[in-house]
Amino acid sequence: MPMDQGEGLLAERFQAHHTRLRAVAYQMLGSLSEADDAVQEAWLRVSRAGTGGVDNLGGWLTTVVARVCLDMLRSRAARREEPLGVHLPDPIISQPDVLDPEQEALLADAVGLALLVVLDTLAPAERLALVLHDSFEVPFEEIAAILGRSPAATRQLASRARRRVRAAPARPDADLAGQQRAVDAFLAAARNGDLEALVALLDPDVVARADWGKAPTRVPGFLRGARAVAEQALAFAQRAPYGRPVLVNGAAGVVVAAGTRLIAVMGFTVTDGKITEIDILADPERLRHVDLTALGNRSG
Asked: Are 154 and 164 in contact (CB under 8 A)?
């Protein structure tokens, strides 16, 4: 059926797909602000081109956003502007057991911080093929058209990316309550200064990443091993009382806030009852932009 080309109707139709488009862009880019930029750029392209002859508007808009994101990823890779040290994706914070529809869409296929870190290691074409196919069920024929490759080559890209994701230690337990118990025990042990209890809660090969941004710090951004991570946790034990349980990208996490000042966002990966990864966003500049509206007015 031909689509009305009126600007108002086109904007209304675009808005109806906005939540899905933003989710595609977030999983492609790992940045909420860049995701919003990508969706806005897609709208500009659509408003200029119109939708005449488009039968499946949702699918077509998804490919437009995907093309924008692919350009952004390629530009990012070419500039090599990632900051020194660890750079973590933007976290999505919510109350335990409470996700609004927008957050649910952003976290399709359980996209935790740890998984986004792995996605960041993929080549742009690999990431696009994997995200579009596995998370959003876009056929390989359509993905191939975006990439300018054959469907067979596109399948190979997704398969290679999938193997790398599966090889990464980013498989959280499905039991959210069990995840939270492990995190609560971690905070309690830190508050009590109990090194051995901390070590017992951690997987022997646990990884901790901390994104400090440009702030000068002597604290390492990457640690591996239960004792090293536990000792670092004790060094910050004075902040443990300010920790509050939340969901970070749908998994057990903590926000650390003193009054209205957000100090850190911590995402945990708990596997077989042990903490296997801890991702800490402590960049003061980025923390100023973290959306805490889903948590209400309480701040600690």
From this structure: no
Give burial (CB, 10 Å; 0-12/13-18/19+) of 79: exposed
Q: Which residue has the tokens 């090889």?
A: 167
Residue 183 contacts residue 268 (beta carbons within 8 Å): yes
- Per-residue model confidence (pLDDT) at position 202: 98
**Of 99, 134, 167, the domain-final residue:** 167
Amino acid at 218: R
CATH number at residue 20: 1.20.140.160
Q: Which structure tokens are listed for 91? A: 């976290």
State pLDDT tens for residues 101-143.
666 667 765 578 888 989 999 999 999 999 999 989 999 999 9
The predicted model scores a pTM of 0.86
Which pLDDT band holds residue 219 (cuts at 50, 70, 90)?
A: confident
Residue 300 pLDDT greater than 50, yes or no = no
Domain that holds residue 126: 7-89+113-167
Same domain, 15 and 157: yes
